[in-house]
């Protein structure tokens, strides 16, 4: 295929095929293992299978070069998938049934991103250091999820490695924060930092650019939520940031998608979100923004409908109706020596407090302050019309 991307000398189509074959084999293989509690040693298990192109008594024949497929902590990740309500058959169907869709990468990481055709999962290539860091993170991640299954942290569903032609390509499977089935009128990558935090000219020329902190301040006077939703959102963000701080993690971002419910066309005709909605036969995402902040109460269930697609209802200061989709991304950056050096150098040249790379505690506090005061705001009066609060869907008796 002309112009096809290569990553570590492997074409994108070969990598996609190897990922699907490998996950198909490893998840199928897991079904024979009985359910049991996750033990400490489960986090350090690495399973490996060789998939020759001619096939074997264990693996199917395929059109790609021979490769080895490694699965990290298979039982631990199976537990995480169950915790998020993902059945093995659904996971396999999502990843293996249709070709994976390659996404353009908005970041500077050079990673490849693939999306499953049903919009559920993102598969991202990660560097060796990031994969190693995720492995070390797993026991703490497990403990945190048991205490707080509602979180805006990335939901990791699997960590794998494709070995072919002397190359190791590591990939992680995660939740998809921004569903394609809902049009994102605005997209932001926010860190709570101001230094160089504006989208590049090249980024702005894209049909759906990913803007940054200074752009947000230029374009929005904050996003407004009813008190209950605002408090739930901030409580979740605070807890997640403290977890990241305890793991010495920083430089993460909040990925934020804004869907404007009633976009007016050029003719003045109002178009509702229905036009952008996914087919009714498809489920709402496993881990929606609303579920991530609501906890196990009935409120979350009531609001996560086909109308909201799991987004969080909000308003602009002009009272436009919005749906907000969000999640914390890029948490596999430990505050290692190299980052400390980077910060010391930048602090000499610029104002140290405006630089994105900072000590984990300072980073978390600055991030939370920006989110709670500049990005998310509380509505001080409900929009009550005929006994219905249009923000939270509450009906008065």
Automatic annotation (TrEMBL):
Keywords: ATP-binding, Cytoplasm, Kinase, Nucleotide-binding, Transferase. Residues 11-375 form the PIPK domain. Pfam families: PIP5K. It comes from the Eukaryota. One of its GO terms (molecular function) is ATP binding. Gene3D superfamilies: 2-Layer Sandwich, Phosphatidylinositol Phosphate Kinase II Beta. GO terms for biological process: phosphatidylinositol phosphate biosynthetic process. Transmembrane segments: none annotated. It is found in: Cytoplasm. One of its GO terms (cellular component) is plasma membrane. InterPro entries: PInositol-4-P-4/5-kinase_C_sf, PInositol-4-P-4/5-kinase_core, PInositol-4-P-5-kinase_N, PInositol-4/5-P-5/4-kinase. The keyword Transferase applies. PANTHER family: PHOSPHATIDYLINOSITOL 4-PHOSPHATE 5-KINASE TYPE-1 BETA (PTHR23086:SF34), PHOSPHATIDYLINOSITOL-4-PHOSPHATE 5-KINASE (PTHR23086). This is Phosphatidylinositol-4-phosphate 5-kinase, type I, beta b. It comes from Scleropages formosus (Asian bonytongue). The gene is PIP5K1B.
């Amino acid at each position: 295929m002309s112009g096809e991307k290569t990553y570590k000398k492997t074409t994108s189509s070969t990598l996609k095929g190897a990922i699907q074959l490998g996950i198909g084999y490893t998840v199928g293989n897991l079904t024979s293992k009985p359910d049991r509690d996750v033990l400490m040693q489960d986090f350090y298990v690495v399973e490996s299978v060789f998939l020759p192109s001619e096939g074997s008594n264990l693996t199917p024949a395929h059109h790609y070069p021979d490769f080895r497929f490694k699965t990290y902590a298979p039982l631990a990740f199976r537990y995480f998938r169950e915790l998020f309500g993902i059945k093995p058959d659904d996971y396999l169907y999502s990843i293996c049934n249709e070709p994976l869709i390659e996404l353009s990468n908005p970041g500077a990481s050079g990673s490849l991103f693939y999306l499953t055709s049903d919009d559920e999962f993102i598969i991202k290539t990660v560097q060796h250091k990031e994969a190693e860091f995720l492995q070390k993170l797993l026991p703490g991640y497990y403990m945190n999820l048991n205490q707080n299954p509602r979180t805006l942290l990335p939901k990791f569903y699997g960590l794998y490695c494709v070995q072919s032609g002397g190359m190791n390509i590591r990939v992680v499977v995660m939740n998809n924060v921004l569903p394609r089935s809902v049009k994102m009128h605005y997209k932001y990558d926010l860190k709570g930092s101001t230094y160089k935090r504006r989208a590049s000219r090249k980024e702005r020329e894209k049909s759906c650019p990913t803007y940054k902190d200074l752009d947000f301040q230029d374009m929005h006077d904050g996003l407004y939520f009813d008190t209950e939703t605002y408090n739930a959102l901030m409580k979740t963000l605070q807890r997640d940031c403290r977890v990241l701080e305890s793991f010495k993690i920083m430089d993460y971002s909040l990925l934020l998608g804004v869907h404007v419910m009633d976009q007016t066309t050029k003719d003045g005709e109002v178009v509702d979100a229905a036009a952008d909605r996914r087919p009714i036969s498809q489920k709402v995402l496993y881990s929606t923004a609303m579920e991530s902040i609501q906890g196990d109460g009935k409120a979350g269930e009531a609001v996560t409908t086909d109308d909201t697609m799991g987004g969080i209802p909000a308003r602009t200061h002009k009272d436009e109706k919005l749906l907000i989709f969000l999640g914390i991304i890029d948490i596999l950056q430990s505050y290692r020596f190299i980052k400390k050096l980077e910060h010391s150098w930048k602090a000499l040249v610029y104002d140290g407090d405006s630089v994105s790379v900072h000590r984990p505690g300072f980073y978390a506090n600055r991030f939370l302050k920006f989110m709670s005061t500049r990005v998310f705001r509380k509505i001080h009066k409900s929009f009550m019309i005929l006994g219905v609060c249009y923000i939270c869907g509450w009906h008065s008796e």
